[in-house]
């Protein structure tokens, strides 16, 4: 395994966690997963980065962690649309180097946590040139009017029309199949974000699988000791989302 860093622009880069065993054959390329960690658009969450990368790497995925533009990188402009271009840049890299990296470019999934879930959902509902095979959302923000942020002053730039950042309103029949999970006791990003997203997926008959857990704070990641900053973030019941997601991914790979 090796880790490669590829610069996208002055405030964004992507890290590839690459399986390069001689046993791997170009005749049998691997699926890939692009991870958009959370961090409230302020920073990039480490707990939703490398631990997730290693978990999926061990299951036979080439994994990319997108360190997208956020506020703690010295930005004071509205970078939300720029973030979408940064996701597209990762797809472009994959399409350019897929043979070298032993990736099937038709089997690339996008996963987002929290604010990274907002980015992933926004990308997949924006009719992009490079579309994901499937979308995985972990306790995502899907709209800025469903409890996060608590106030728009959270951003260090102005948001004149928040509805244009509402991924729920942009869902169409072209939105990829989705796996989504959330906890009912999430006080940071209310579960309504996921419920409304599922409602809109159902309206246009986009296949989805949803799992809602009774208890667990925001930002659980894998909900195990690898991603638990406190004891309350260690929630064995919620750990089930990962094997369920793997099963969902395998079903998508067969389609």
TrEMBL record:
It holds the Pfam family BD-FAE. This is Alpha/beta hydrolase. Residues 26-125 form the BD-FAE-like domain. Keywords: Hydrolase. The keyword Hydrolase applies. It comes from Lactococcus taiwanensis. GO terms for molecular function: hydrolase activity.
């Amino acid at each position: 395994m090796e880790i490669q860093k590829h610069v996208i622009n002055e405030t964004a880069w992507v890290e590839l966690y690459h399986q390069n065993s001689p046993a791997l054959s170009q005749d049998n390329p691997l699926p890939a997963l692009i991870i958009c960690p959370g961090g409230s658009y302020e920073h990039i969450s480490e707990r939703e980065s490398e631990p997730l990368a290693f978990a999926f790497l061990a299951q036979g995925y080439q994994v990319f962690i997108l360190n997208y533009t956020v506020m703690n990188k010295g930005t004071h402009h509205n970078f939300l649309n720029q973030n979408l271009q940064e996701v597209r840049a990762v797809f472009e890299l994959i399409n350019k180097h897929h043979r070298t990296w032993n990736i099937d470019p038709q089997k690339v999934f996008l996963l987002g946590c929290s604010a990274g879930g907002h980015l992933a959902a926004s990308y997949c509902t924006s009719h992009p040139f490079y579309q994901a095979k499937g979308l995985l959302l972990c306790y995502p923000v899907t709209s800025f009017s469903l409890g996060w942020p608590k106030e728009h002053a959270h951003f260090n730039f102005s948001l004149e029309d928040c509805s244009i950042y509402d991924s729920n309103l942009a869902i169409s029949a072209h939105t990829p199949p989705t796996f989504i999970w959330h906890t009912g006791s999430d006080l940071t990003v209310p579960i309504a974000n996921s419920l409304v997203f599922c409602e809109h997926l159902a309206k246009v008959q986009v296949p989805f699988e949803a799992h809602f857990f009774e208890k667990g704070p925001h930002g659980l990641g894998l909900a195990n000791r690898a991603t638990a900053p406190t004891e309350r973030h260690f929630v064995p019941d919620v750990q089930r989302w990962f094997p369920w997601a793997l099963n969902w991914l395998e079903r998508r790979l067969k389609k």
